Structure formats: C-alpha cells, structure tokens
Amino acid sequence: MLNMEEKYEPLKELGSGNFGVARLVRDKKTKQLFAVKYIERGTKIDEKVQREIINHRSLRHPNIVLFREVMLTPTHLAIVMEYAAGGELFERMCTAGRFSEDEARYFFQQLISGVSYCHSMEICHRDLKLENTLLDGNATPRLKICDFGYSKSGILHSKPHSTVGTPAYIAPEVLSRKEYDGKIADVWSCGVTLYVMLVGAYPFEDPEDPRDFRKTIARIVSVQYSIPDYVHISSSCRLLLSQIFVANPSKVVFSQLV
User: pTM surpassing 0.85?
Assistant: First the structure.
C-alpha cells in the first residue's frame, strides 16, 4: 500500500485554520488534482475529526465536495478530497459586493440541493455559511459544500444540543442550550446565506455596531432583520426569507424552497 508521499505530489498550500493546513496535491499516477487537509496526530484527532470523516465519507452528491480517502503520514492525518478550483463562494461574493436575485437563486438552489441530500442521509451540517461553500473551476460554477467538522448523524450520534457554528449564521434554537433539530437549524443558515448573497451584509448584525455579538444574539432571538431599500428583490424572495427566519420552527420542508 502506497504512503502519502509515494502516491501524491505536493504542489502548494491552499490555506490554514484551527485544524492545521490544506494543500493542493497531484495524484502521481492519474495526474488528478486533490485538496488535502493535514491534521497533526495526537490530541487534535478528536471526536470532531472522527465525525467529519465518518459523515463526509458517506456522502456522494454533485453539490458536496467529494471525500476520497484518509491517509497517515508520520506526523499527520491527511484527509484527501476533491479540489474545488473556483475557491470560496464568499470570495466571489466579496468581489461582487452582492449578487443579483438570479445569481443568488442559482447558488441557493444548489446549496439546498446538497443540504437536502445530507438530511436524507440523516446528517446535519451545523456550520453552513458562504466560507464553507466552494466552487469548481468551470465557466458555469457548481457549488460544493465542504467542512463537516460540526456535522452530526441522526443514526450514529446524539441529538444536537451544543451551541456550535458561526455566530452570524446561528438559528435561535441553537442558542437555547437545549436539544434542537439540526436539520431545521441548517435551513436557517441557508436563509442567512441567501440574505448575505442578496444584500452583502449579515441579516442579524446591528448595522451601527456589527461587531457587538450580544446585539447580534438579541436580534437573532427576536428575528429582527430588514431588507435595505436599495436592494430590489421579488416579493416571492421576501416571502421565502420570512418563511425561513422563524423563531419557533416546527418543520421547514425543502420542497418549499426550491
């Protein structure tokens, strides 16, 4: 069995985070490019990493980054995945400022297609955001959901109850510190993603004081958001956002969102 160095040729660093470093590599045999997430062996290989591997490897969908394999180096655990050459959707949106409703719809439909599939496999992502959606390198880019570090399986794991995710995207029920439905919380995060694509700002941040986390939390809990006058979107899109941003959701069905 080949080891990491024998099988893959390292090309460049793609980025780094709390987990470690991500690198672009080339399969020496097929010449295919892959992204590899290197996590230092030892205490960093925790339950979060185990869940990421178990949940991500079970998913096969055109709007989810494809999991290829896990390999070990003398110092690191290496997660080999599909390489999305188009980078983060977040970067594309920052360059544009905000998207037209048509462009936002194009990406949103792909996002909920991937998330709906995860939910059909009994997996909730729990950290959906623009930074965790990548694009392939095609002229008409395909969205790819990545980073399943906070994901939970309804079959293998306990029901979600911890407050995880990115503050601006967190649903009200996630803040309650009680058990919640991870799938419905994912839908809320999809709604935040849609809003950010359309408006170019986060829905629940105080425009006067966007860095005040307490104010953001208060606005999330009270579902206090508005669409600025300069943003022109259809009434059906406004209705969609109002159906997603609900303080006490019972069940949000993806078929309503497509």
Answer: yes
